[in-house]
Design brief:
With about 450 residues, the chain is an alpha/beta fold. It has three domains: about 210 residues, ANL, N-terminal domain (Rossmann fold, 3-Layer(aba) Sandwich), CATH 3.40.50; about 110 residues, Rossmann fold (3-Layer(aba) Sandwich), CATH 3.40.50; about 100 residues, GMP Synthetase, Chain A, domain 3. Helix content is about 35%, strand content about 20%. It is built from 15 helices and 21 strands. The protein has a five-stranded parallel beta sheet with strand order 4-3-5-6-7, with helices on both faces. A five-stranded antiparallel beta sheet has the order 8-9-10-15-14, covered by helices on one side. β5, α12 and β6 form a beta-alpha-beta unit. It is globular and about 65 Å long. The chain starts with a helix and ends with a strand. About 45% of the residues are buried. This is Phenylacetate--CoA ligase family protein. InterPro entries: ANL_N_sf (IPR042099), CapK_Type1_Caps_Biosynth (IPR053158). GO terms for molecular function: ligase activity.
Length: about 450
């Protein structure tokens, strides 16, 4: 994308921040009509899939929803650039040396960890990549205008630290690596921290790095706040951005009080990164000028405002290389009709789902150590042959692993590697006495939500 086009998108996004409801709706309506028309012309899959929908209709309820398995099954026909094929994408994402590179030199490619089943593959075009930056900035940058925040940003040399799982083409880690490769600023001032690291190592690394902005999994940031209170961590970020996992108001207040800084929750997904951003009043605002959100029940029927949905259908208005129209994201959300006291006309929303528990074990020397859910589950998910996994703490020192394998994998061989990798991971955290056992049943969906929880405990502490 040339600088002029990027500038136009950036200017429009910032103007929309204080737009009226009618102005936001007009942007959404215009972009939706353009996206539906484009998808029906340029995507072989959508052309067939919408054959019975009247031409030119922008009534989304007439369009059948899509799911991750459907998009994966018809991947080559969904994408609108015929140079992109699932076979070549699979080779690309299997190569860890390609993390941070663009596929075909043009397209960022992100993979999901498979919260709702199969890992997904999502190709971004330049507009989608630009929007992932700009839409978040329009909420966050004004929050940093106070003198104390600016002073910290300068003192910490604008360094940004991201706590996210590496080792794959995940949006967070791979996106950061791409910025490092493509920007002189990024190479010097962006750093990835792994939640898989023992907590003491993570604390030591952050003490050395001294980030001005710290973003990452909510559970990890809350644990780091405790370390700061205990005197083990000594950092002074200007901004903390919890994301990827649910976080309560109490926990956000704890982050603000502990680090004495601005805290803004981010809600997004690999499929569409900047779905919502928190304002100064603590409310998540959905970026509905660039995404359509439809909270629905189990039959894909709309739910009333302030009613938790079973899932949410999202329609991306930015990505044309792999259009997402009424895509079943799997998260439970609530939308509110009332305006936020901050004055923004963007709708307020709340998010459920994405459940995972921090597991705490006594170490071999008698201390307590936290094991973070996304770090633990990713150890198993990265093992070749693993299709799905769930990890349950069934006793104080016992982890039970449910797993399923891909068709060409041998279950016994995969289990031996799971056991070995988990034991190595746990020993690295000083908890080598924890027993890892295979469950007799495969991963199960929750009856009510249909989602897969990855990590939880059945032990009452």
């Amino acid at each position: 994308m040339n600088p002029i086009e990027r500038g136009k998108i950036t200017l429009d996004a910032w103007r929309a921040r204080r737009a009226t409801p009618a102005e936001i709706e007009a942007r959404q309506r215009r972009r939706l009509a353009e996206m539906l028309s484009f998808a029906r012309r340029q995507s072989r899959f959508y052309k067939r899939y919408y054959a019975d929908v009247p031409e030119g209709s922008t009534d989304l309820t007439q369009y059948p929803p899509v799911t991750k398995p459907i998009l994966l099954e018809h991947f080559d026909d969904v994408v609108t650039d015929t140079a992109i094929t699932k076979a070549e994408i699979d080779v690309f994402v299997a190569d860890e040396t390609k993390i941070g590179e663009r596929f075909l030199g043009r397209y960022p490619v992100w993979t999901t960890s498979g919260t709702t089943g199969e890992p997904g593959i999502f190709v971004q075009d330049e507009t989608a990549w630009t929007i992932s930056d700009v839409v978040g900035d329009r909420w966050i940058v004004p929050a940093m205008a106070e003198l104390s925040s600016l002073s910290r940003l300068i003192t910490q040399n604008l360094r940004i630290g991201l706590v996210a799982v590496s080792g794959g083409h995940f949006a967070g880690a791979a996106g950061l690596e791409m910025m490092r490769r493509e920007s002189v600023y990024g190479e010097r001032r962006l750093r990835l921290f792994s939640p898989k690291s023992p907590i003491d190592d993570l604390i030591a690394d952050l003490n050395q790095y001294q980030p001005a902005i710290l973003e990452g999994y909510s559970t990890v940031l809350v644990e780091l706040a405790q370390a700061q209170q205990d005197g083990r961590l000594n950092i002074s970020p200007a901004l903390v951005l919890p994301t990827a996992e649910p976080i309560s108001e109490t926990q956000k207040r704890r982050l603000r009080d502990t680090f004495d800084c601005v805290v803004r929750e981010l809600y997004g997904a690999t499929e569409f990164v900047p779905i919502a951003v928190e304002c100064e009043h603590g409310n998540l605002h959905a970026n509905t000028d660039w995404v359509v959100l439809e909270p629905v029940d189990e039959d894909y029927q709309p739910v009333e405002p302030e009613t938790p949905s079973e899932t949410v259908l999202i329609t991306s208005l930015s990505n044309r290389v792999q259009p997402l129209v009424r895509y079943d994201l799997g998260d439970s959300i609530m939308l509110y009709e009332e305006r936020c006291p901050c004055g923004s006309a963007f709708p307020v929303m709340e998010v459920g789902g994405r459940q995972g528990a921090v597991l705490r074990f006594e170490t071999d020397d008698g201390n307590e150590v936290p094991i973070f859910p996304l770090a633990l589950s990713s150890v198993v998910e990265e093992i070749p042959g693993v299709r799905r996994t769930q990890i349950i703490r069934t006793a104080p020192t016992t982890l039970q692993v449910r797993f399923s394998v891909v068709p060409d994998a041998t279950e016994d061989e995969v289990w031996r590697q799971i056991e070995q990798e988990l034991q190595t991971f746990l020993q690295g955290h000083g908890t080598g006495h924890v027993t890892v056992e295979a469950a007799s049943e495969p991963p199960q969906r929750e009856t009510r939500s249909g989602k897969f929880r990855h990590v939880w405990s059945e032990v009452i502490d």
